[in-house]
């Protein structure tokens, strides 16, 4: 698939090396899927399938430090009252299955799960749903996470909104910074390019 790169230089060498590494990584993940065994029966929805794949990679112990997946459908401009509960039911049952899987194989102690949305929703209803909003929500799960709320509950009164949006109370980069520094023991400034306020006592 990857023929010798045309031309020379550090950029071309990097591109060629990245392509080769990607193929090697794909082979490792394929082996992980073949070796995976579990007594946990995951749900039949998309997010359950994806978290099962995450479990396969983690349990294979191939050195992956961050594993990312996603689940769409939350852009509820219409029919939010009926679709939103189902979406969260899918997410919650998939998460429960994922942790049951890891716990059963004594592989949960070094795992934390960050759940976040790329955008929030507005407060005011619009055509049976809500439009994109500024402030969102994040959940951090895992046996080493100190449970609780780490922000102020949002004020939905009209005078407290910012152009119709909930007012953000925590910079999302503070969440990333806290996880990188305090959980992964990395230098967050090297990843984020700047220093951001830490959220105390997450772990």
TrEMBL record:
InterPro entries: DUF1501
Pfam family, one: DUF1501
Name of the protein: DUF1501 domain-containing protein
Biological source species: marine metagenome
